[in-house]
Amino acid sequence: MVRSFVVRSLAFLVLAAAARATTVAWAAGHPHVIVVLADDAGAGDFSFTGNTNLATPVIDGLARDGASLERFFVQPVCAPTRAEFLTGRWHQRGGVRGVSLGQERLDPGERTIAEVFRAAGYATGCIGKWHLGTQGPHHPRARGFDHFVGFTEGHWGDYFDPPLEENGTFVTGTGFIADVIAEKTVAFIDDCRRTDPARPFFCHVAFNTPHSPMDVPDADWDRFRDRPVPLRGSAGANEDLPFTRAALAMVENLDRNLGRILAALDRHGIADDTIVVFFSDNGANSPRWCRGLRGRKGTVDEGGVQSVCCLRWPGRIAAGTRIDSLAGAIDLLPTLAGLAGVPIAAPRPLDGLDLSPLLLASDGAAAIAERAQARPLFAAWNGRVSVRTADHRLDGNGRLYDMRADPGQTTDLAESHAAERARLQGLVEAFTREVTALQPRLLPERFFVGHPAWPRTELPARDGAGQGGIVRSGRAPNASHFTRWTAPADAITWTVDVVTAGRYEAVLWYTCPPADAGATVRLSALPDAGGDRADAPGGGAPVTATITPGWDPPANRGDDRVERDSESFEKEFRPLSLGTIDLAAGPQTLRLEAVAIPGRSVADVRRLVLVPRP
């Protein structure tokens, strides 16, 4: 299965390159596109949706000056929504079924929105959180983005002077992470206008706030520290007000940073030539006020999957446009391509609809509205599936609600509307059968090394496994590191599939107290008994190196306003070359172990990076 998967992805890369070569000049004169995505902002976290606990004038302005999709739905958690936005297809079709440990990776056979726009001649950039895979062919630079600055894992542990990646190089941002994302976005716009002002650009700006940890800059926190919170969520008097205040402070910060991006468009005189989209990836990450909707992030109820979605295109989308038809993240690819006049040429059928006639009030708007209202939208997570229609929601427990009369899902109509409940249950069962049928081609939990689409391979702690006493530093695998490496029986392993055989420099990113420096470690490539091939090879001779010098910087405690729950604190890791190892093609296990431990511990490990060498 792995080898055929690699062949498919390589063939798709060849076709995509050919398409780019023939269409670069075609896109001149087409609008720029900026898609801004918030992380864990609920549908009630904005002043234009009625929240008086904060003010979001920039996002409010997008809705006022353009269109608001009033019933817009995403998935209950991060990676599935991102997959649907990027592909216009249900996330299960692209193999995305989790948020970590390889389950968040998007099948390379899926054509992304970046590939669609790049094939039409657009410059493409992704700034911020990716969360759909780290190695080639899953890295954003292998998925249609010419430029990437951010992080490929899920939630991040350090929001101040954050460690990031910029086109394959590890860098450190300066300041608060949302400010850095806005700064890098403005730099991308500036660079595009400087290098080729006639060429349109597509930029995906993925903020990772207000996701936890609840780190907030002093200036933003000072406005909220003691602010009253008159609008409360389902917890009422028991609401965690410090968490709510921190989340709302981060939303206001995000709003201000979006204003910096829009100001860059004004400075370049291209605001009227740019489509700007704003939405969030799931419901709120706490039970704070959400317009009375039931549920939050991680649930398949309305509050877990309804998001704001605003689109501004001055002079083309009329100010104050309100779209009541059902819409979702799966609609963004076909809709933006339709607005921009970009052909899609997707290798697989889309699940989303092109809603551009509705937004432009053009011919065909009534027909598209009818289709949007007639089709069901599904939400799935943690074994539960919910379906939303124009009038009803069947929740993950089989309860039926009239969403027009009862948006808070308070009265179960399953008995009184038994026929409708049975109809919707049939839709859920058919949907589940269809996506379950995709299971044989889901990606194995094996991480690719040396893929031609992105040969440099990062293997973070998230994608490895600790053996013996080694554990991850945080409950959440994303942004964690391995620690408690103290004994010869301990080891760290990564299960990989080497796409391109050859020599790779192995670089270990570590910390180690000076008193413990000097441990000798060995990296080996072993046959993978769990692989697809009985003749799975191992690698060449192991490489050994000494952990030196000692390097033990303090953890960055940041400005947490609420005690963090799952993320570990970050620290600055140091690269150490272990030497060059020969790797044969095929599935195998990389094993890192200590052969001499002169101190109390070996090292903490953030990642192993494999760099092709001649």
* Global structural class: alpha+beta
Number of domains: 2
Instruction: Please indicate the percent range of residues in DSSP E strands (runs of 2 or more).
Output: 15-25%
Give the total of beta strands.
Answer: 27
Mean pLDDT comes to 92
Query: What is the CA-based Rg, rounded?
Result: 24 Å
The major beta sheet can be summarized as: 11 strands, mixed
Helical fraction: 10-25%
List the quaternary state of the chains: single chain
**Shape annotation:** globular
Structure, explained:
- With 614 residues, the chain is α+β, with helices and mostly antiparallel strands.
- It has 2 domains: 2-375, Alkaline Phosphatase, subunit A, CATH 3.40.720; 447-613, Jelly Rolls.
- Helices cover 24% and strands 25% of the residues.
- The chain has 12 helices and 27 strands.
- Strand 5 and strand 6 form a beta hairpin.
- Helix 5 (177-195) packs parallel to helix 7 and helix 6 (218-224) crosses helix 7.
Considering the chains and any ligands shown, give keywords for the structure:
12 helices; 614 residues; eleven-stranded mixed sheet; 27 strands; six-stranded mixed sheet; Jelly Rolls; alpha+beta; Alkaline Phosphatase, subunit A; 2 domains; single chain; disordered N terminus
What does this entry show, briefly?
The protein is an alpha+beta fold and 614 residues long. It has twelve helices and 27 strands. It folds into two domains: 2-375, Alkaline Phosphatase, subunit A (3-Layer(aba) Sandwich); 447-613, Jelly Rolls, CATH 2.60.120.
Set out the fold topology.
Elements: H1 2-23, E1 32-38, H2 57-65, E2 67-73, H3 78-87, H4 113-119, E3 123-129, E4 147-151, E5 163-166, E6 169-172, H5 177-195, E7 201-206, H6 218-224, H7 241-268, E8 274-280, H8 302-305, E9 306-307, E10 309-312, E11 321-328, H9 332-340, H10 356-360, H11 365-374, E12 377-381, E13 384-388, E14 392-394, E15 400-402, H12 418-436, E16 447-449, E17 457-460, E18 465-467, E19 471-472, E20 482-483, E21 491-498, E22 502-511, E23 520-527, E24 543-546, E25 574-583, E26 586-596, E27 604-613
Parallel strand pairs: 1-7, 1-8, 2-11, 3-4, 3-7, 16-21
Antiparallel strand pairs: 2-9, 2-10, 4-5, 5-6, 8-10, 12-13, 13-14, 14-15, 17-27, 18-21, 19-20, 21-26, 22-25, 22-27, 23-24, 23-26
